[in-house]
Design brief:
Shape: globular
Order of helices and strands: HHEEHHHHHHHHHHHHHHHHHHHH
Number of helices: 22
Strand content: under 5%
Helix content: over 70%
Distance between the termini: 44 Å
Largest sheet: 2 strands, antiparallel
Radius of gyration: 22 Å
Structural class: mainly alpha
Amino acid sequence: MQNILSLLIFIPIITAIVLFLLPFSVKATRYVSFGATLLTTSLSMWMYTHFQATASMQFVEQYPWIKEYGISYHIGIDGISLIIVMMTNLIMPLLYLSFWHLNRKGYWLNLLIVHGGLTGAALALDLILFYLFWETMLLPIFFLIGLFGRENKNFMSMKFTLYTIFGSLMMLLAILYLGHSHHIQQGLWSFSITDLQVLIFDTQTSLLLFGAFIFAFSIKIPLFPFHTWLPQTYRAAPIGAIVIMSALMAKLGVYAIWRFVFTLFEDLAFKSSYFFVVLGLFGMIYFGIAAMKQRELKKLFAYSSASHLSLVVMGIFSFNYYAHLGAFYMIASHALSSAALFMMLGMIYKRTQSLHIHTLGGIVHQAPIFSSFFAFFALSIVGIPLTGGFVSELLLIIGAFKYNIGLGFVAASTLLIAILFVFRVMQKVLYGKIKLKEFAELRLYELLSIIPLALLILAMGIFPSYFMQKIKPTAAQYTYTEITHVR
């Protein structure tokens, strides 16, 4: 199927435009939106089965767009972008099921737009095209928070938007400079990443360009100290927006570092690797301790997500095969676990109108099935055996030891922080004193939304080789720790 990547991008976007322009009812909008996501999921599964286990770009499409400035519609997929696309297309239909009870047309339309934006950003190989899809993700989140959020939602939607737009503008200036530099050095305009690799800059210019990209992507992850938008935005945002930000958009920030920073500033990224490995370890500890202090579940798991993403950043900057493979695998496993956890927080809020730990307790006595799934997803976050999180953390720790023995010990020991706050949450929320008059058991549509995630998490833990075979060749790129140290 020649244009399958374009179909994955534009089916959700075109569906949203049609639903917006035509007088569809809320019920019809919900069914059509869900159908569109099921279609993209089916297409992504076909693509996955036909994806070859190589490091090269596949299903590539390239068409001239603005010829005089070398801007093209250039998309393709490799092992790491495959992870982002598959996670997006697996999680989105389940997210629809989880909130099937919502009767808000705008909610479904914004989810469709962000679905297309996420996929486009993961597939774009032209920097202008990437920027357009990167910004396309932002607008629906702004509306989701502003229209459907709570507690100071208007202020927080504006703060989040301004914060991320500022980082994006820095990236845009760097992109324009790269295209102009290609015109100066090569005699023609181009924004294709394959063309921009040949550019040569002095040290100061390279640092400025490198910093602009890192700044934009660090905000999206978020990486310390660019996380100040995180706690209050998660508190104000509706659960659907949080699932997207935590499970998908944050991972896209890590992907963008790999795709653009490592490709365009390969030597500078390697030379600064120690700084980012240490920063990632510090972020793990800082966000882990911050999570332990939270009294509200949204903020607690927000910091938990940031802690694990810091571990992923440590992995990709370790520049060895095991760390890269572990980082990629954690992108997938954590996407599934965090999506499921935040979806279950939405179920808790629907039943109790509260996510404060002190108001919850004894749920296991009233809803044992709900409690079992919640405990499983919470434990999968910290990497219990037989889950994908266990495999990814093991690989990351091995990679950290290969990079630096001392930092490897630090990375291994800091994982205990996550275990502590997860057990604290389980004790307080599930097994504590009964504080709720009633707590309804999982409904059928809620079960259907989380069972596939649980099965996938288990499958990734029990059969890791099957899932890793597609991404191993990509993980073998940029493994300079072993090569350079031999020299």
